[in-house]
Amino acid sequence: MRHPYKALVTGHSRGLGEAIARALLAQGIPVLGLARADNPALADEFDSLLVQVRLDLSDPVAVLGWLEGGGLAVFAADGDALLVVNNAGSLGPVAPPGRQDGAALAQAVSLNVSAPLLLCDGAMRAGCASVRVAHVSSGAARTAYPGWSVYGATKAALDHHARAVQQDAPPGLRISSIAPGVVDTAMQTAVRASAPEDFPRLERFIGLKAAGQLSTPEAAAGRLVAHLLSDAFGTEPVVDVRELA
């Protein structure tokens, strides 16, 4: 039986994005995965439900070209509602200004901000009567950390985008920026590899891992997807999965 939802998930090739895609696919929801690499495990498990497109989401010209080529509209064509999960993201340069790599900074802004905003706009042009957009945000958007000015600023941009779009109130659109908690992914591995002089809070995150206090991708994805599919989604523009009922 045809599922009324179809879902676009960015960064589905690993980590939290893979777990989100799997949670949606397990409910029979067709998923379009956008990432630089395919996910063979998901393809083997959900061959008939998964469409994969290799796309460098840190390249706004490539993202815009794909949207203008009709890829999203074709995928969404026979769906009643479109879900968009903007999960792909980069920690970016971890350092104070003056020690940040300019190319890495520009790439992080493009991946973390430009791509989600372009995909939100593109989703509204795809022809579905109902669209739900979930930005994967971070607690760093709401609490400042030394060394994370780029990461925190880009995630805060997603939070504010959700707030402003709610004020726009486009017909058929629900949107929310969702912090998934501290999740045991490759990004957390990168955090723990940071230089102490660039990230003074390093020991805190090493301690969270050592104490087993990191959420698994599957647990975080389960909470996020449950909220995305619930009637409550979009009532608040900024939420944290740890505070959801």
Output mean pLDDT.
94
Largest pleated sheet: 7 strands, parallel
Number of strands: 7
- The sequence of SSEs as H and E is EHEHEHHEHEHEHHHE
Give the overall silhouette.
Answer: globular
| Rg, Å, rounded | 17 Å
Percent of residues in helices: 40-55%
Number of continuous helical runs: 9
Structural class: alpha/beta
Report strand order across the widest sheet: 3-2-1-4-5-6-7
Unreliable segments of 5+ consecutive residues: none
Distance between the termini: 30 Å
Strand percentage lies at: 15-25%
Written description of the protein model:
The protein is an alpha/beta fold and 245 residues long. Helix content is 42%, strand content 16%. It has helices spanning 15-25, 40-45, 60-68, 71-76, 102-124, 149-168, 186-192, 202-210, 217-228; strands at residues 5-10, 31-35, 50-54, 81-86, 130-136, 173-179, 238-240. Helix 2 links the parallel strand 2 and strand 3. Helix 1 crosses helix 9 and helix 5 (102-124) packs parallel to helix 6 (149-168). The longest helix has 23 residues, at 102-124. The protein is globular and about 55 Å long. It starts with a strand and ends in a 5-residue tail after the last strand. The model has no long low-confidence stretch (mean pLDDT 94).
